[in-house]
Amino acid sequence: MIHVPTAIHVPTAAWAHTAFDLTAWSSGLAFGAGLYRWRLKAAVERVATKVEGGYFLALALGAAIGAWVAGSVNTLVGTRPALSHSVIGALVGAIAAVEIYKAIKGVRGSTGGVFVGSFTLGVVIGRFGCLFAGLPDRTYGTPTALPWGVDLGDGVARHPVQIYESAAMAVFLALYLFGLRARADWALRRGFYVMCGWYGAQRFCWEFLKPYPHLIGPFNLFHLLSLGLIAYGWIYFARDLHDQQRAQIRSLSVLRPDHEPV
User: Can you name the residues that pair with 219 across neighbouring β-strands?
Assistant: First the structure.
């Protein structure tokens, strides 16, 4: 344990997590609605023609199951077993359930674009709830001698991993907004896949700074879920880009009555 007298003391309270969660997701929903009116209306309307009510049921069930299974598996194998929940587990669970639904319904392409802004802002704000909830939240970092180490009440300077994650997702949010402003395809059409890859990559890094039990070598459960998100984002981004390029080639090959390519 590394005791650093100059560690930044952070006041903590159990209710902080709930307060920040409510703020995060209510702000996220409002932000998502604003993005819908600004840039995402056409994309959302295209998705709405492809899915039915079962889509949202699959999304909700997948997120709930994924959150509690991933969070609990991680904590139950630790030194103080307890049930828990996890944001990355919710994301992975929702993706798995929705992709199964889409496969059954024959739906291709991203349907998650409308959730990018909401999820990202939710993480940016919500991670501060994890920080101010303190040690009982079990999301704290490992000890550090760095000058920005935080003391959550036990006199130990720790990596503020919650702030690291919040800052990383704030950077993505800024880039995403620039992409939407420029009407870039990566943001308008494949923003969800990019978000998954980004979230997985930054989360993979911060997991090395958390005292979670290892499952395979130096990797904990969330390392593995992060790698899954990176792979998902990369593979589906590439697939959708290929579909888009193929559709453009087909449209250019259509002949007019005078047999001139359009």
Answer: 216
Q: How far apart are CA 233 and CA 210, in angstroms?
A: 24
Centre a 10 Å sphere on the Cβ of residue 36 and count the other Cβ atoms it contains.
Answer: 17
Whether 143 and 157 have beta carbons less than 8 Å apart is answered as yes
Give the containing element (helix H, strand E) for 188. helix 185-188
Contact 204, 226 (CB under 8 A): yes
160 close to 149: Cβ distance less than 8 angstroms: yes
Closest CA relative to residue 128, chosen from 247, 23, 241, 254: 23
Contact (CB, 8 A) for 199 and 234: no
**DSSP symbol at 255:** B
- Residue 168 to residues 38, 58, 120, 184, Cα–Cα distance (Å): 24, 29, 10, 21
Q: Which residues of 129-166 are buried (b: 16+ CB within 10 A; e: fewer)?
A: bbbbbbeebbbbbebbeeeebbbbeeebbbbbbbbbbb
107 with 100: CB under 8 angstroms?
no
pTM assigned to the model = 0.92
Mean pLDDT across 252-256: 63
For 159-214, what is each residue's pLDDT tens digit? 999 999 999 999 999 999 999 999 999 999 999 999 999 999 999 999 999 999 99
Phi/psi class of residue 233: alpha, beta or left (left: φ > 0; alpha: ψ in -120 to 50)? alpha
Of 176, 83, 62, the residue nearest 123 (C-alpha): 176
Distance between CA atoms of 70 and 11, rounded to whole angstroms?
28
Q: What span, in angstroms and rounded, lies between the C-alpha atoms of 118 and 114? A: 8
